[in-house]
Design a protein that fits this description.
By secondary structure, the chain is an alpha+beta fold. It has one domain (about 5-175). It is built from six helices and four strands; from the N terminus they run H-H-E-E-H-E-E-H-H-H. A four-stranded mixed sheet has the order 1-2-4-3, sandwiched between helices. Strand 3 and strand 4 form a beta hairpin. It binds zinc ion (ZN).
Length: about 180
């Protein structure tokens, strides 16, 4: 039993700070595991992009993200990625040449990806409880992509632009234009 007088002491405050740090560290590890299937695919894909068309790559420890920048004049920069500033694939971000400024926007998508992985894991547990491990695996792995497609569909059904006006993009543009 903790008394109100005890709560005011520096020792109690330190104990709570340490507990919060421990829980935060534990949470980061669990979150990393929940995101791992998509991240393994994303890191392999982006490392391949780096090898073929990249100019630089780095691991951001603060954001826990692999960042790959495309080379000026490379095939994606000249073709299908020409009108893009950046793209997020799990804990991996691909940037067009000279587009470092869009990184904060992409990092919002990384947080959205983490939320979708948590949702996927929870749905996966329900499906597992219903008796299908294949369905559970599919729910877990597909949740991030389905979450984005769902946001686009909802925007479309409301008569909005499916990309720019979907709720995930709106949130990312609001936080990091
Ligand atoms: Zn975006």
């Amino acid at each position: 039993m903790v008394t109100s007088a005890e709560i005011m002491t520096p020792r109690y405050s330190l104990r709570m700070t340490n507990l919060r740090r421990t829980l935060s560290l534990l949470g980061t590890v669990v979150l990393g595991q929940l995101c791992l299937p998509g991240d393994v695919v994303a890191w392999c894909a982006l490392l391949l992009v780096r090898a073929l068309w990249g100019s630089s790559s780095r691991w951001s420890w603060s954001d826990e993200v692999l960042v790959v920048s495309l080379r000026e004049g490379s095939w994606p920069a000249r073709t299908w990625f020409r009108s893009w500033g950046g793209a997020t694939l799990g804990h991996a971000v691909m940037l067009a040449p000279g587009q470092e400024r869009v990184l904060p926007h992409e990092l919002v998508h990384v947080k959205q990806y983490e939320a979708a992985c948590c949702l996927g894991a929870l749905v996966g547990l329900v499906v597992l409880a219903l008796g299908s491990w294949r369905g559970a695996l599919a729910a877990w792995c597909l949740a991030p992509a389905l979450s984005y497609v769902g946001a686009m569909l909802a925007a479309l059904l409301r008569g909005r632009a499916p990309y720019r006006e979907n709720v995930l993009e709106a949130a990312a543009y609001a936080e990091a234009p």
